[in-house]
Amino acid sequence: MHMIEASFNLTRELYEIDLGTFVDHPVGLSTTATNEETGTHYAQAKENCTIIDKVQYWGIETDHDYKLVTTLMDKVTGKPVKGAEVTTKLNSASKDGFIDVEITFDASGLAGHDVVVFEKLYDGREEIASHEEINDAGQTIHFPDVGTSLTDQTTKEHISYAAEDVTLVDTVSYKNLYAGKEYVMSGVLYDKETGEVIKDDAGKEITATQKFVPDEPNGTVDIKFTFKGLSLAGKTIVAAETVSYKKADLAVHADLNDEEQTVVFPKVGTTAKDAATNSSLSKADANMEIIDTVTYENLIPEKTYRLTGVLMDKTTGKPATDAAGKEITVTQEFTPKKSAGTEEVRF
Asked: In angstroms, what CA-CA distances link 17 with 14, 25, 218, 241?
């Protein structure tokens, strides 16, 4: 009796002999990637981000050492994400099964991007299976992005009046959200000088929250801050916004130096003197001139402003009138070169 031993060159498929019959067991991979923090395909673009890739494998040899190489691809650039490649040893007692691959990396520069998980399985140096599909939604992690533009509701500019009632509108632009899901946009106003959350006249921190359901992945939503703001004269405030989904933060935009996020509250003071005496004493004369030196701060340079002055009778609390019974007022426009300075107004 002669014995014949068959030899096979195996590459991407493995075979087993069963009573003389060849049974085909192709080696394959399938993956589903989620963010560890949110448990979804959405993650915050921050320094320490962890993605869990659940890899399904089938058709491998049992109790055999394999190498699984995981790579994150930036869908925008088409290049691997720096510092986001992981090699995992795979040795299973079963031909088919699952393995979780954890990838922790710096995602702080990926706001507005998508990353896709690529997997390759090696037997020694030979690649025997892979799952690399740039358009596979199950392999994709989305990193939302937000940007803000804070303006006064009345002026429509980045300048406001420290009044009894103030309303600021923050138009928040968002990118890379999932349409049809409910999100929460949370806003906070900060004092640019101190970096602390700013407070209204009652000492309460100024915040706002808005729920929204986007129709498209990209769009805008308005957040309104309404508060008592007499105490804010001379302050510069900056808005910070956070978009969250099911209490998990997905994107944050907080930059104290971002001019688009900033609103200034000007402050003015005046010193009136008689033009003849150069003092606060004056003679009730037929021809008088009073010079009011207006000190201003926290204006936006190169914009044109209007100063309106009125002389008030301190005794009556009403506008003063001249010999002809006419109220004494003056209006003057000026364009400052700097945010702080002085301007003379002559009555």
From this structure: 10, 11, 55, 63
